[in-house]
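As a warm-up, study this chain.
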Amino acid sequence: MSIGAKDHIDKMLVKKYAKERMNNASEAEVLMRSPETYWRYAKEMAEVQWAIVKATSYLKKKKDEATQQFLNSARPAVS
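Now compare it with the structure written out below.
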């Protein structure tokens, strides 16, 4: 498996961006988070996910109950 441009468009893009350099060191310092901040964000995301799971479970349960109620009411009485 080779690495590199295979068609005309890829070759042109390689030529265009061959001399480009990225210097994100200043941005990396701004984007860095302390471990405390990282874990706080992780905790908040986990809480949101947990709320979604609980809400989805509740709605599924209510839907199942409503479906069962409908099916029970739609069945003819057996005599």
